[in-house]
Design a protein that fits this description.
Strands 6, 7, 8, 9, 10, 11, 12, 13, 14, 15 and 16 form an eleven-stranded mixed sheet that branches. Strands 28-29-25-24-23-30-31 form a seven-stranded mixed sheet, sandwiched between helices. 33% of the residues lie in helices and 20% in strands. The chain is an alpha/beta fold. It is globular, with a radius of gyration of 28 Å.
Length: 775
């Protein structure tokens, strides 16, 4: 029987080749009508034809949608057959809203068909680096606003040539209605420049850039979401020069290799890691170095891991056609502390003192977006260290939350992301970085504004959330926005936000409590001290601090962060005399800028008893790293603890009676890090270094897990979760997981947002919404 239907499909359904797919399926079922994009990122279909054929058509869409497409809902309104359509067609996008919840997809790495087009002689796209189709290419980094059409992307500056226009209009072509397509005649072009903006005379800029990289020069390479700095990895000298110019003496660099087989020559790759490396997201994956590591040790000094990715654009693909290196460093193109450059002018201005040449193109980057970083933990737990390209702007769904109010969250200070919470999903921005200057703060503000624009949110937020720390630039910006518009401001304790983000991504109901273990570097606590090793009994709205590490002084404040020997002295000072302390730490006095003289200054700072106190896990692990002679000066975030983990990975932990380190004070359970650190130093005299490092990590993990178990048993709560930056430590995560599970308790962890500060904005937004709704 002839019928008509209006079908609205929500999800990730624009920018994924869905309309061309619908066209082909509809015509194959003999249906007439049209498909169009709506302004709310929904796809609307109107069809007429046999009722059974329409039902089969809908079922086929549901089951066989393109790979990147994610259908969430299909709403069908049946109507009488009128016979008003003569054919099926793709119509111009409409400025209408019918549903909420759809979103543009993230950037999609180049597909195998386009790779073939680029590498096959005789094809129109041979060696053309901007080759894409309906199934791949920039999305989030290219679009100004929705609906997703060429005129609202950075490709509006490149009108299609007649041949590309034919392919765009051909239903049988995979470039049918693909908004980003182009060819050498009508698309963007590459140019190689010197730092003084002079073009290098060459017919093949990518070949010339590759040749220069092979000769040891440092070259900036503009991609789809930003600019990388590329350098070879098999010789020390180019890396020494890059580290000198970037003022990055030891921080590990990520690398890119041409294919999976090449990666396996210098790193251990599990099947899951291989699947992640070759996925359409193409993230950086943190891999174990091979025992015979052929690359320069200056790529990732004194670490047992290396961050690796595969080419995700035609530009990268072409570089590796000419470069004979197994890997190239591909690190963010920015001056220290500033956001990555995205415009050519910005690149000349900020990178001229860092790079020797710049390989740039004439296509605008609309949205800056750093590479995502992933680590596969034991038991194949996929942990996001940085959630950005390939994952943003996909929302985090929170089906148990019914929230009509709009919440903006401004995140933490370090590894920042912002977030917008509306209804049952939270939209995190791309990775912003460390918000310690006005440029990065402006980037955060712009990223939130662009996300708001994509979501078509036209009104001000109902509530704003930020960190409790009063001096964070993110907190100041949030306060300014709240005061300007008279919007309620919720200042969220850092570690409650960590636990709330964990609860949200694990769909914990609003009335459910969990025991959260929050382990990280530092976060401002409501008592005015700096937390970082916490056991919290928490709901979204409230929390109780049930336990922590023993509070320790931080003589000199932030100096302890940069000079771990200070924390070593501080942690031991409460249980040793001055002479004993000098005897046990004198071997590391050279790790202080002023040596033994500074040791005595530190003791005076501690005795004044008016300094900063902390329960930081990071500072404890830093102190251990210094005690073991691994790191005396921190040159990048997490360096001492990462070096400790690298050495510990080769060791076997000795068993300690962890209960001897746990005590009760003021009704809270504490882990005595002073006694633990002293005992570890004693153990180190009879054990090798790797076993000692493994022992302290194991004891620390079991100690915090045991406190959490005791609190769970006391409160009757059967869910324990782990959050915070320390959760990416392989051994600590594994030991806590196994200990909790051995006590028949449910253990939850992060898989959708970073456990570190990149996930804080999710927690802030949920807590603020909970306060507004009085959950």
């Amino acid at each position: 029987m002839p019928r008509a239907a209006t079908i609205n499909i929500t999800g990730t359904v624009q920018g994924v080749g869905f309309r061309p797919f619908i066209y082909r399926v509809a015509t194959s079922y003999g249906l007439k009508g049209y498909v169009t994009n709506l302004e709310d990122a929904t796809v609307e279909i109107k069809v007429e034809g046999d009722e059974q054929q329409i039902k089969r058509f809908i079922e086929f869409l549901r089951k066989e949608a393109p790979p990147v497409c994610n259908i969430e809902t299909i709403q069908i309104v049946w109507e009488p057959f009128i016979g008003r359509f003569k054919r099926f067609e793709i119509k111009r996008s409409k400025g209408e809203f019918v549903a909420y919840g759809s979103m543009l997809p993230p950037d999609i790495s180049i597909c195998s068909d386009c790779v073939s087009d680029i590498l096959t002689p005789g094809r129109r796209w041979y060696h053309y680096p901007f080759t894409v189709c309906a199934h791949c290419g920039p999305r989030f980094t290219s679009v100004y606003e929705l609906p997703y059409d060429r005129i609202r992307t950075n490709m509006k500056a490149f009108p299609l040539c007649p041949i590309c226009q034919e392919e765009y209009a051909d239903p049988k072509d995979r470039r049918f209605h693909a908004q980003g397509i182009c060819c050498p005649k009508c698309g963007p072009q590459m140019t190689l420049y010197t730092p003084d903006k002079q073009p290098v005379s060459t017919n093949n800029p990518i070949y010339e850039a590759a040749k220069l990289i092979g000769e040891g020069f440092i070259v900036a390479v503009k991609g789809i979401g930003g600019i990388h700095i590329a350098v070879r990895t098999t010789e020390d000298q180019p890396l020494i020069e890059l580290r000198k110019r970037r003022r990055r003496p030891t921080q590990p660099f990520a690398v890119m290799s041409p294919d999976l087989e090449t990666i396996k020559t210098y790193a251990v790759v599990t099947p899951l890691e291989a699947a992640l490396l070759t996925s359409w997201q193409k993230p950086i994956v943190t891999l174990k170095k091979a025992s015979n590591f052929p690359l320069s040790n200056l790529v990732a000094p004194e670490l047992d891991t290396i961050g690796v990715m595969l080419p995700y654009t035609g530009i990268h693909l072409m570089l590796f056609q000419y470069v004979k290196e197994p890997a190239l460093v591909m690190t963010s193109g920015n001056k220290p502390g500033l956001p990555m450059a995205i415009t050519n002018e910005e690149a000349f201005k900020t990178l001229s003192g860092i790079v020797d040449y710049l390989l740039l193109h004439d296509r605008e980057i609309v949205n800056r977006c750093d590479d995502s970083v992933i680590r596969v933990m034991d038991n194949n737990v996929v942990t996001l260290i940085r959630r950005s390209r390939g994952y943003v702007p996909t929302p985090i769904k929170i089906p148990l939350l019914e929230n009509e109010k709009i919440t903006f969250a401004f995140g933490a200070e370090l590894r920042n992301t912002g977030a917008i919470l509306y209804k049952d999903r939270c939209y995190l921005t791309q990775h912003i970085g460390d918000v310690t200057n006005i440029e990065t703060l402006q980037y955060l503000d712009q990223a939130l504004h662009h996300m708001q624009n994509l979501l078509k949110i036209t009104r001000d937020p109902d509530v704003i959330a930020c960190d409790l720390h009063p001096r964070y630039l993110t907190s100041r910006l949030a306060k300014e926005k709240a005061n300007e518009k008279n919007i309620p401001l919720i200042q969220v304790p850092h570690h409650h936000a960590h636990i709330a983000s964990l609860m949200a991504e694990n769909n914990i109901p609003p009335d459910q409590s969990i025991i959260g273990i929050a382990l990280d570097g530092i976060g401002f606590g409501p008592d005015g001290t700096f937390w970082g090793g916490e056991i919290l009994q928490a709901t979204y709205r409230m929390y109780t601090r049930q336990g922590s590490l023993k509070p320790q002084p931080m003589p000199g404040g932030d100096l302890c962060t940069y000079y771990p020997v200070r924390m070593l002295i501080a942690i031991l000072s409460s249980i040793l005399t001055e002479q004993e302390l000098s005897d046990i730490t004198s071997h590391v006095f050279h790790g202080l800028p002023h040596g033994e003289k500074e040791f005595h200054v530190i003791l005076q700072q501690i005795k004044k008893a008016n300094g900063i106190m902390t329960t930081s896990s990071g500072r404890f692990l830093d102190a251990v790293s210094a005690a073991m002679g691994l790191c005396y000066r921190r040159t990048y975030e997490g360096e001492p603890a990462m070096k400790l983990e690298a050495v510990a990975s080769m060791g076997r932990p000795a068993k300690l009676d962890i209960t001897t380190y746990i005590y009760t004070k003021n009704g809270k359970l504490l882990l005595d890090t002073s006694k633990l650190l002293y005992d570890i130093i004693m153990i180190s005299r009879d054990h090798n270094l790797s076993d000692t490092c493994a022992t302290v990590q194991h004891a620390f993990a079991i100690g915090m897990a045991e406190i959490a178990v005791q609190v769970a048993e006391k409160t009757g709560i059967n869910i324990i979760g782990l959050s915070g930056g320390v959760a990416v430590n392989q051994q600590i995560m594994r030991d806590i997981h196994e200990y909790i599970s051995s006590h028949k308790l449910n253990f939850i962890y992060h898989t959708k947002v970073p456990p570190g500060d990149g996930g804080i904005s999710l927690g802030q937004s949920i807590i603020a919404a909970a306060h507004e709704r009085d959950l």
